[in-house]
Structure formats: structure tokens, C-alpha cells
Design goal:
The protein is of the alpha+beta class and 370 residues long. The chain has two domains: 79 residues; 197 residues, C8orf32 fold, CATH 3.10.620. Helix content is 33%, strand content 17%. It has eleven helices and 16 strands. The strands form five sheets. The chain has a five-stranded antiparallel beta sheet, with no helix packed on it. Strands 11-10-9-12 form a four-stranded antiparallel beta sheet. A three-stranded antiparallel beta sheet has the order 2-5-4. Strand 7, helix 9 and strand 8 form a beta-alpha-beta unit. Helix 8 packs antiparallel against helix 10. It is globular and about 65 Å long. The protein starts with a strand and ends with a strand.
């Protein structure tokens, strides 16, 4: 079985690099002699079996999910709100101007700009929850949609966005990845391909929505990356949402994700490779952090905000986002080097240039210096 690898860009030496590669060099003196007496029938049978096996192992590509879902968030958002939102998504994909909705509260949540930005990004700022003629936006179980662009152009915009998302997923992930592997690969994808936006955000007209714009331009700030990463995780089937804190000297946003049933803080903004001049790797310090680790960075988790809630401030809703597990602690300026998915080993480099192995297979820390 050929190992699947993701190779980091840290260059230690050619000898160290070979430690993350499997190279099978045949002994030429002991090369087996091919038997030429095999019948064509046997060859055909073997070829058929090989073909069938290859077809069975061919990975199933990721498809766009218009109905992304957060079980954690669903604990505070009524089911009728989700139903209305999914009806809205289906209507938008077809360019329709109304959708079924059970009540006005569900209509308002489904059409809120923050809901659209985080769960259906291409629609944010391009559609509104109101009627075009000034009549009631919601009436008799029907919600109206007002487009800020021709509906047919929006449909094309949505299709283009969906193709972009599936392209990211299929070029970054594999269908047999574990949740840990998917979360890590998408973390590395953003850190290696996106840049921090140092422009004046107050001067930017939000014509495209802050999440959609970051996907298209690969530029953003913390509020953007907390949502972009969360959205990709949701598309991969991992529960995630944008959260943030407002503390003195620290206004920041990141992603809260539930991986293998446990909560973690993941900060792709502070992991952006472009922010560290002269560094050739992606820091793992901000991947799958516990509450204690997040607090130690100055991002206190006592009053977290959550964009997808109407109440915004978590402490006003008695919501608890737990991240007590510290099994994946790879900190102190440690950079990604490579991933051995067959043996569930992540290799990383420390600040002194030494390589270490981290076994992630059964949620237990196991480290050995190479």
C-alpha cells in the first residue's frame, strides 16, 4: 500500500527528508524471473481482478452541500429556522423569488446577512429578506426574496462559487480522511494560500459579503478567516462555527470546531504563512487548541461571540463552548513537516530545526525525536 503524504516546505537536509518517504529499492541480484509460461487466460483474469480492485478503491469526490449543518449550533437554533434556511438555499439556486417558511422568526434568521455569509456565502449582500414591491416580506407561510442583481446572474454566481468550493475540497482532501486529517489539511490549505488583508476594512464596500470576498480574493482578516475555515469544515461534514472575543487590547475571531466529538479552538489567521517573514513552514501552535491554550494567548473564552446567533454574545444565552481536551498539543513555534496517514503520524520541526513525530491515531500524544 502506497502511503499518502503531505510534504511541508521545511528543508532540513536531504537525509532528513528521506525519513518521511517510503522508497522501495529492489535488489537487482535477487530480481525474480518472470514466468513466460502463464496462459493468456490467467493474464486476462488477473488484469480483470486488478481493474475491478482499482475501481472499488477509486475515491468518491466531494460534492457541494447546499444544506450545511452545525449540530452544536442546532442546540440553540430551532429546527424551523433550519428548514426555512434550506428552503431559501434551494430557491436561490434556481433564481426563485420566494420560499416556504413556517414563521417570521425563521424567515428573519434565514435571510440575515450573517447567516448567509457563514452558511451560504455567495448570497450575502446579493439577496435580502424583503419583497421588491414594499409589501410584507413574510406572509402566510411564504418568505419573499429581493435580489440585488438579476436573478439569472445570481444563479451563475452561485454555480461558480459551488465549483470553487468543490475544487478546494477535492484538491485538498481525500474521501477516506479522518476528521483530524481533514481539519489539518484545510488548516494548511488556508495558511499556505491566503494572505492577511492590511487594508482599511471600514473603507471597503461590502458588496460581495466578507466571507465570499475572502474566498475569491484570498485576502482577509480574522473575522473572515474564522468563517472561511468553518465553512470548509462544514462542507467536509465537521461541525464548526466562527467565534470571537472582545477583550481590552484583543478583539479577535477564529473557528470553534468539534472533531471526533470534542471541541477545539483553531486559528487560521495567526497561522498564515505569509505573516512570518523568512519562515518556510506553517506553525501548528494554533491548531486544535484547548480553552487554557486560547486563554494564554490573550483570547479569553469567557465571553465568546457567535455570529450565527441572534443574541451574538454567548454569555447572554447561557451557551457553553467547551474545549478542554489538550491531546493535540504541538506548540512552541513548531512547524508542519509531513503527514503519514497510513501510520497516523504527523512529523513536525521545532524551533531548533529538529524533527519530532506525533501519533494522532487514538487521540493520545506520543512523541519521539527523530
Amino acid at each position: 500500500m502506497i502511503s499518502k503524504r503531505i510534504i511541508g516546505s521545511v528543508l532540513i537536509t536531504a537525509v532528513l527528508l528521506s525519513g518521511c518517504s517510503k522508497v522501495n529499492t529492489p535488489d537487482t541480484e535477487e530480481t525474480a524471473v518472470t514466468e513466460i509460461s502463464a496462459t493468456e487466460e490467467i493474464k486476462e483474469t488477473e488484469e480483470t481482478k486488478t481493474s475491478e480492485t482499482s475501481a472499488e478503491k477509486e475515491p468518491v469526490p466531494f460534492e457541494f452541500n447546499p444544506h450545511v449543518y452545525s449540530p452544536k449550533l442546532a442546540g440553540w437554533v430551532p429546527q424551523e429556522n433550519w428548514d426555512a434556511f434550506y428552503n431559501l438555499c434551494d430557491a436561490l439556486r434556481e433564481g426563485k423569488n420566494e420560499f416556504e417558511c413556517s414563521n417570521e422568526e425563521a424567515y428573519e434568521w434565514a435571510t440575515r446577512s450573517t447567516t448567509l455569509a457563514n452558511l451560504f456565502p455567495a448570497a450575502c449582500m446579493k439577496v435580502e429578506g424583503k419583497s421588491e414591491d414594499g409589501s410584507a416580506g413574510f406572509e402566510n407561510g411564504i418568505g419573499k426574496i429581493c435580489y440585488n442583481m438579476p436573478p439569472e446572474e445570481y444563479v451563475a454566481r452561485q454555480a461558480d462559487f459551488e465549483a470553487m468550493i468543490t475544487g478546494i475540497l477535492n484538491s485538498t482532501l481525500e474521501s477516506d480522511d479522518t476528521e483530524y486529517e481533514m481539519a489539518l489539511k484545510l488548516y494548511l490549505y488556508i495558511a499556505e494560500n491566503y494572505d492577511y488583508d492590511y487594508s482599511d476594512q471600514s473603507a471597503i464596500k461590502e458588496e460581495d459579503g466578507y466571507v465570499y470576498r475572502t474566498f475569491k480574493t484570498k485576502l482577509g482578516q480574522c473575522i473572515n478567516y474564522g468563517s472561511v475555515y468553518a465553512y470548509l469544515l462544514l462542507q467536509a461534514g465537521i461541525d464548526a462555527m466562527n467565534v470571537g472575543c472582545f477583550e481590552e487590547g484583543m478583539d479577535h475571531a477564529w473557528t470553534y470546531a468539534v472533531i471526533d466529538g470534542k471541541g477545539y479552538h483553531i486559528d487560521t489567521t495567526w497561522a498564515l504563512k505569509s505573516c512570518y517573514t523568512g519562515i518556510d513552514h506553517v506553525y501548528l501552535d494554533y491548531f486544535m487548541m484547548s480553552d487554557e491554550e486560547r486563554n494564554s494567548d490573550g483570547c479569553l473564552v469567557r465571553d465568546l461571540t457567535m455570529q450565527l446567533l441572534k443574541e451574538f454574545w454567548v454569555n447572554r444565552t447561557n451557551i457553553v463552548l467547551d474545549a478542554s481536551d489538550a491531546s493535540y498539543c504541538i506548540r512552541d513555534y513548531c512547524g508542519f513537516y509531513c503527514l503519514d496517514e497510513d501510520n497516523k503520524i504527523l512529523t513536525y520541526v521545532d524551533m531548533y530545526g529538529e524533527l519530532h513525530e506525533f501519533y494522532y491515531g487514538d487521540n493520545k500524544t506520543s512523541e519521539n525525536k527523530m
